[in-house]
């Protein structure tokens, strides 16, 4: 069975010896927020999203996937830990496993929605 290109969920990793402009600005803002408030900004943001339940896509005991209010792309999501984690190496084995399962389930949902959108668009274009 051939899988359409829009169902190909991939992750791209770029590596360099410097921090690009946008991530550098985000890093600076988050560091300032932490210095001023004593709590990580994204952890506070996750708590707000959990309370509001407006943009939560899927969650489990360790992770939260939301559509951030600043999203610019269709199906853009943000994966957030429920506790402060500095590095991926700091995750427990259980947290790594729950992240894998969450991403797998979420990726299937996104792929299925894209497939449905493609089918509906095809039907409209060709009046099927």
Automatic annotation (TrEMBL):
GO terms for cellular component: cytoplasm. InterPro entries: GalP_UDPtransf1, GalP_Utransf_C, HIT-like_sf. The keyword Nucleotidyltransferase applies. Pfam families: GalP_UDP_tr_C. It comes from the Eukaryota. GO terms for molecular function: UDP-glucose:hexose-1-phosphate uridylyltransferase activity; zinc ion binding. Residues 28-99 form the Galactose-1-phosphate uridyl transferase C-terminal domain. One of its GO terms (biological process) is galactose catabolic process via UDP-galactose, Leloir pathway. Keywords: Nucleotidyltransferase, Transferase. NCBIfam families: galT_1 (TIGR00209). PANTHER family: GALACTOSE-1-PHOSPHATE URIDYLYLTRANSFERASE (PTHR11943:SF1). This is Galactose-1-phosphate uridylyltransferase.
């Amino acid at each position: 069975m051939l899988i359409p290109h829009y169902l190909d969920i991939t992750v791209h990793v770029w590596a360099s010896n410097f921090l690009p402009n946008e991530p550098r600005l985000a890093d600076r803002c988050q560091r300032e927020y932490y210095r001023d408030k004593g709590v990580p900004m994204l952890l506070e943001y996750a708590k707000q999203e959990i309370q509001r339940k407006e943009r939560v896509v899927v969650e489990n005991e360790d992770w939260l996937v939301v559509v951030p209010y600043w999203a610019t792309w269709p199906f853009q999501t943000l994966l957030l830990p429920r506790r402060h984690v500095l590095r991926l190496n700091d995750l427990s084995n259980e947290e790594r496993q729950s992240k894998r399962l969450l991403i797998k389930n979420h990726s299937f949902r996104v792929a299925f929605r894209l497939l449905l959108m493609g089918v509906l668009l095809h039907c409209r274009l060709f009046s099927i």
